[in-house]
């Protein structure tokens, strides 16, 4: 059979939420992208349903929130089943309830409207990096037979059982699931709502929706994860539910059944030459507290602008490596908090003393804020070189309206400098004006608090510090004068033109 050929800059494997987010970001930065997706149509499966505060901010920064309307929100979350108020300063505190298929719809519409080439019904079969040192080749099988693709980069966004990871043999250390939660959406049952109820024999969760369907989740203490090739039978879930709660739900109608384990693995390298990994392809975790989807979307948001800038020939060689450095560190921390939560959640009587101590600790405001920052993604601070500043590497505190809204929507860098008229050149040269927009505004309305300690001496200019913001909203440089700004511009946006 003859093979069709296709050349592009980036081959994205997988049109799940992460691949779709990445495709949109790459197009925004001007890169050509082909997305391969083996499913003929988007999934309608009930999967993740939580968007955390930082994800809401990044969606807003690209003008995507309006498409979601006003989703239900809930300030209360949990840490290993122990109630935790997730509220932190910012426009989107708490958790926002959006079914994953809706998130995917919005991201797909955006990627398509920006010109991404999404090929559904195409399954990736082979990857070869031994082409010419500069390209990667992939073969997919689609409705018209084999398709040979050639690109500068391939990004694996193909989920927890990543085909790419298997083909490249990328090291993915960690452990498989030892314990699991069973879950089902069931119609026609009457059981009390339960939020992480710990009974003698296990953990039971039940939430009745407005349409009368109840989602049940159950874990029997001491049980181990079964080796599965598909979803569990409803009879198995009903049996475990009966043993744990004493209630019979077997007469209900199961609409969906699923199980998820506490596997915990992370790739050693998120970038291996011209193959990169994002989302569940890069890390496997239990979706506790709705962090899995959010972590993946933020991987894509970190990678998209960097890869696009690199492909424009504008970025320094180190820019792409910062993707691994930054996101691997964030992933490691999130996986650790998920593992800690799994211990608290699925452990039996032996974890009760630990839970009692935690229950006391989370009442301390500093502890609550720390955990909320971790789960919401608001506390992510990348290791960024430059003169020390309280904002360096952190996300610029997000406000609505945002002083850099237009530039961020366009995926550009921003120099917020209250002492400069709008659209004048960044201090240190005008050579970055094609990549960085200068805005004569403080980083926050009334943002005088953004002043590095010890820099407000008699010679320092008045008012808040200037701040250089990357397209993903993180601060690449901040200061009262221009010290280090040209170097930061060059480090993150390449040489001046
Ligand atoms: C059943 C289930 C329930 C979940 N429940 C929750 C939850 O309650 N809360 C939560 O936070 N998270 C949950 N998750 C996790 C969450 O859905 C994932 O973290 C999220 O989908 C990750 O997005 P992704 O784009 O990285 O991967 P995926 O969403 O898995 O997308 C990967 C895509 O790649 C495609 N693909 C795979 N191999 C190939 C190939 N060879 N060629 C072409 N395409 C390929 C797949 O078809 C898929 O569309 C759940 C996941 C599953 C599977």
Keywords:
24% strand; five-stranded antiparallel sheet; alpha+beta; Glutaredoxin; 3 domains; 497 residues; binds flavin-adenine dinucleotide; FAD/NAD-bd_sf; 27 strands; six-stranded mixed sheet; Alpha-Beta Plaits; FAD/NAD(P)-binding domain
Helical content, roughly?
Answer: 25-40%
Structural shape: globular
The largest sheet, given as strand count, sense and whether it forms a barrel, is: 6 strands, mixed
Which whole number gives the mean pLDDT? 92
Counting helices, strands and paired strands, the structural category is: alpha+beta
Describe the structure in your own words:
GO terms for molecular function: FAD binding; oxidoreductase activity, acting on paired donors, with incorporation or reduction of molecular oxygen, NAD(P)H as one donor, and incorporation of one atom of oxygen. This is Oxidoreductase. Its cofactor is FAD. The protein is an alpha+beta fold and 497 residues long. The protein folds into 3 domains: 4-173 and 266-376, FAD/NAD(P)-binding domain (3-Layer(bba) Sandwich); 180-261, Alpha-Beta Plaits (2-Layer Sandwich); 386-497, Glutaredoxin (3-Layer(aba) Sandwich), CATH 3.40.30. It has 11 helices and 27 strands. It has helices at 17-28, 53-61, 100-113, 163-168, 234-245, 291-311, 318-346, 352-361, 365-376, 405-409, 485-493; strands at 4-7, 10-13, 33-37, 50-51, 73-74, 76-79, 82-85, 95-97, 117-120, 123-128, 136-142, 145-151, 153-156, 174-175, 180-187, 194-198, 202-208, 214-220, 253-261, 264-266, 271-272, 275-277, 283-284, 413-416, 436-439, 466-469, 475-479. The strands form 7 sheets. A 6-stranded mixed beta sheet has the order 9-3-2-13-22-21. The chain has a 5-stranded antiparallel beta sheet with strand order 16-17-18-15-19, with helices on one face. It has a 4-stranded mixed beta sheet with strand order 1-12-11-10. Strand 6 (76-79) and strand 7 form a beta hairpin. Helix 1 runs parallel beside helix 3, helix 1 runs parallel beside helix 6 (291-311) and helix 6 (291-311) runs antiparallel to helix 7. The longest helix is centred in the last third of the chain and has 29 residues, at 318-346. It is globular. The protein starts with a strand and ends with a helix. The model is unreliable at 453-458 (pLDDT under 50). The site of flavin-adenine dinucleotide has 31 residues, from helix 1, strand 3, strand 10 and helix 6.
């Amino acid at each position: 059979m003859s093979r069709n050929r296709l050349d592009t800059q980036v081959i994205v494997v997988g049109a799940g939420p992460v691949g779709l987010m990445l495709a949109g970001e790459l197009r925004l930065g001007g890169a050509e992208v082909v997305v391969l997706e083996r499913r003929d149509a988007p999934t309608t499966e009930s999967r993740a349903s939580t968007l955390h505060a930082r994800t809401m901010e990044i969606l807003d920064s690209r003008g995507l929130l309006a498409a979601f309307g006003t989703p239900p929100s809930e300030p209360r979350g949990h840490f290993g089943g122990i109630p935790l108020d997730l509220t932190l300063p910012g426009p989107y505190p708490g958790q926002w309830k959006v079914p994953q298929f809706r998130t995917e719809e919005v991201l797909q519409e955006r990627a398509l409207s920006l010109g991404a080439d999404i090929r559904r019904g195409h399954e990736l079969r082979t990857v070869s990096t031994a082409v010419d040192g500069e390209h990667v080749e992939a073969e997919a099988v689609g409705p018209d037979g084999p398709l040979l693709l050639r690109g500068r980069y391939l990004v694996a966004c193909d989920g927890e059982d990543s085909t790419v990871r298997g083909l490249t043999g990328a090291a993915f250390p960690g452990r498989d699931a030892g314990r699991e939660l069973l879950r089902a959406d069931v119609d026609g049952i009457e059981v009390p709502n339960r939020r992480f109820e710990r009974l003698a024999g296990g953990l039971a969760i039940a939430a009745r929706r407005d349409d009368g369907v109840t989602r049940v989740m159950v874990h029997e203490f001491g049980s181990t994860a079964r080796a599965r090739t598909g979803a569990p039978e409803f009879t198995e879930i009903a049996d475990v539910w009966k043993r744990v709660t004493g209630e019979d739900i077997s007469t209900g109608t199961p609409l969906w059944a699923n199980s998820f384990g506490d596997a915990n693995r992370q790739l050693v390298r998120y970038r291996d030459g011209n193959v990169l990994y994002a989302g569940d392809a890069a890390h496997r975790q239990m979706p506790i507290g709705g962090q899995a989807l959010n972590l993946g979307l933020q991987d894509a948001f970190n990678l998209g602008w960097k890869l696009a800038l690199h492909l424009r020939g504008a970025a320094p060689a180190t820019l792409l490596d910062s993707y691994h450095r930054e996101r691997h560190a964030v992933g490691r921390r999130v996986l650790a908090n998920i593992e800690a939560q799994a211990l608290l959640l699925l452990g039996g009587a032996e974890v009760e003393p630990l839970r009692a101590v935690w229950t006391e600790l989370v009442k301390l405001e500093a502890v609550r804020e720390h955990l909320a920052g971790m789960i919401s993604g608001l506390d992510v601070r990348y290791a960024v070189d430059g003169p020390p500043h309280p904002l360096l590497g952190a996300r610029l505190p997000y406000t609505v309206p945002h002083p850099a809204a237009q530039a961020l929507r366009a995926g550009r860098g921003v120099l917020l400098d209250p002492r400069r008229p709008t659209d004048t050149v960044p201090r240190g040269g005008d050579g970055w004006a094609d990549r960085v927009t200068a805005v004569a505004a403080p980083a926050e309305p009334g943002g005088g608090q953004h002043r590095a300690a010890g820099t407000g001496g008699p010679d320092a200019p008045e008012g808040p510090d200037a701040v250089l913001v990357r397209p993903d909203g993180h601060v690449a440089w901040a200061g009262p004068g221009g010290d280090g700004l040209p170097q930061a511009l060059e480090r993150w946006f390449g040489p001046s033109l």
